[in-house]
Amino acid sequence: MEIRALRYYLAVCEYGTMSRAAEALHMTQPALSRQIAALERELGCELFERHSRSVTPTEKGRYLRRRTQEIVGLADQTAADFTHDEGIVAGDIHIGAGESVAMRQIARHIAQFRTRYPQVRFHLHSAIATDSIERLEHGLDDLVVLMSHPDNDRYEHLRLQPTDAWGIIMQAGDPLAEQEVIGPADLADAPLIMPGRSWSGDGPTGPLGAWFGEHGRELDVVATYNLSFNATMLVREGVGRMISFEGLTETGGNTDLEFRLLYPPAVSIIDVVWKRNAPRSRAVQLFLDSLQA
User: Are the beta carbons of 102 and 145 closer than 8 angstroms?
Assistant: First the structure.
């Protein structure tokens, strides 16, 4: 498979029609159709379902789309690493991370690094831990920031000094807002919105599983989430109370939300991780050196 053909394939997936994709690629529709047909012959399967005015990927087409995004992204990143002179620190650094106030510490390092190496560009990708690890394994991200991930020892890692504290986000008029802290029994049998990475279906996992203890069997989990912004909409509409890290959502004051810490305290450790013995650009290595220093 040629990279060019894969780029054509991604364009058709993005635009949904051969004509719009061809226009975006500055080529004719028949030429693009021939390229897609050749790719289907090479792979021995149909990649699109043809409709009267549009195309949609088949099941195998959707798989190819995911793999193609990885292949093209890695090819672009590799090419960019070779476009700069040896004496100049430049290029791209890709960082994956979940939502955490610890990213402020990473942001501070990025700001300091950019004052020394202004030709380095950073790319942030927000995702849950499993997706971040997958991107790290496929070389799409150079390093990732993880909270209480169980497999950190598989990678080189640097433990950041802050920890993330868990708490409850609730409507301002919620009776629990009258309490200074929230205990496990306070959350039993009431609608709860849990982070997906901390809920297995059988009960809470990780630090939250240890915190809930025997009360974990009594939870009424009505929704899970991976990124917090949309989940706060559920809280505002009265769907339930939301477990979240402190500092991710504005609460109190003139907002319609309140935040209270869990007690006993429930915290998640924060690690920056990267692959052992993986080839790294000079920019990435220097940034890692600055973090470790």
Answer: yes
Beta-bridge partners for 49: 56
Domains along the sequence of the chain with CATH? 3-81 (1.10.10.10), 91-162+270-292 (3.40.190.10), 164-266 (3.40.190.10)
* pLDDT of amino acid 84: 59
> Residue 189: left if φ>0, alpha if ψ -120 to 50, beta else—which one?
left
Residues 6 or more apart from 31 whose CB is under 8 A from it?
Answer: 22
CB 195 within 8 A of CB 164: no
Q: Are 189 and 216 in contact (CB under 8 A)?
A: no
SS3 133: helix
Give me the pLDDT at residue 250, please. Answer: 92
157 pLDDT more than 70: yes
What is the spatial distance between Cα 170 and Cα 232, in angstroms, rounded to a whole number?
A: 9
Q: How far is Cα 24 from Cα 62, in angstroms, rounded to an integer?
A: 21
Tell me the one-letter amino acid at 61.
G
| Residue written as token pair 């470790």 | 292
CA atoms of 274 and 152, how far apart (whole Å): 9
Q: With contact defined as beta carbons under 8 Å apart, do 22 and 29 qualify?
A: yes
| Neighbouring-strand partners of residue 124 | 95
Q: Identify residue 143 by its one-letter amino acid code.
A: L
Mean pLDDT, range 207-221, rounded to an integer: 90
At CA 100, angle to CA 252 and CA 138, rounded to 5?
Answer: 155
pTM reported for the whole predicted model: 0.66
b/e 170-181 (16+ beta carbons within 10 angstroms → b) = bbeebebbeeee
pLDDT, tens digit (0-9, with 9 covering 90-100), for 79-135: 776 765 556 688 899 999 988 888 888 999 999 999 999 989 999 998 888 888 999
Quick one: pLDDT at residue 244?
Answer: 94
- Edge to edge, what strands does the sheet with 156-159 contain? 120-126, 91-97, 143-147, 270-274, 156-159
**What is the distance in angstroms between the CA of the first residue and the CA of the last residue of the chain?**
43
